[in-house]
Amino acid sequence: MNIQAYAAAEPKADFKPFEYKAADLGPHEVLVAVEHCGICHSDLSMLDNDWGITTYPFVGGHEIVGTVLWKGDDVRHLQLGQKVGVGWSSGSCMHCRECMSGHHNRCSTVEATIVGRHGGFASHVVCKSEWAIPIPAALDASKVGPMFCGGLTVFNPFIEADIRPTQRVGVVGIGGLGHLALQFARAWGCEVTAFSGSPAKEEEARSMGAHHFVNSRDPKALEKVRGSLDMVLVTVNVNLDWNAYINTLRPAGTLYFVGAVPPVEFEVMPMIMGAKRIMASPTGSPATAADMLEFCARHNIAPVTEHFPMEKINDAFDHLRSGKARYRIVLDRN
Ligand SMILES: [Zn+2]
Ligand SMILES: [Zn+2]
Predict the structure, then answer these.
(1) I need a labelling partner for 256 at 20 to 30 A (CA). Which of 26, 139, 170, 173 fits?
(2) Ligand 2 centroid to 262 CA: how many Å?
């Protein structure tokens, strides 16, 4: 069968209709008929070959929602017609130490949905069944796509850093990732502080769960929250004054990076004296993804989305490039 996709021929090029033949499905693979696909900032980085790993023609799309159209002989836990989501990862080896301990996202040979293969800006996408995550019926399928990359990326730190409801969490950057992190932190039971350089976002940040709003361009405002937070979750991808953020942590607090920040500099002595730590992680495991979806259903958590028909993919990318997306873009197939 042929898959109808949208591909870019070179860095920064427009997407154009592109047809390719689907390979025969392996025994553990599923073919998903795509209904919606979010656009993540990583799709833009890959389109532009910012990381030097893009192959062309490039078919992006790794926030995929669709139904299982066909499955390999050994796939027993998914049904034909079942609604599933596929995120950044589309396969893992299933036998290394990380896979065997439930950390498939850390597998050294993890297959990325849009690296060296074709993603979800298409009629169909193929993935290994362990990464096709069933979507609870309570969730709005048209909006849930961004949870499979953006959502999982900011949900996983709550698990990895073992955050408790009695703790205080700060979120740096109120955008595609940050607006989801605020909702998670609030529903987790934490006291939530939003850090943003855009004071105009205060009201919205509060509506998404922030108890406090700190203008991150004001050093005095940062100083005011010194020593008060257990985790500061960094969702931006630019360098900031990290010493100022380390100062906002309580002893044993965690500065947690999920944005692809360039090389950072910070003073070690405050880290030592406060027994503080720096952490980072890539998305999350399939089990964490399933837990996240259940948590979203329980607490009515959803991304704020803007929708474009998939054939308007170039308009959608222009919108993302302009920095005006509020907060996640989703492409819909009709
Ligand atoms: Zn992504
Ligand atoms: Zn593995």
Answers:
(1) 139
(2) 27
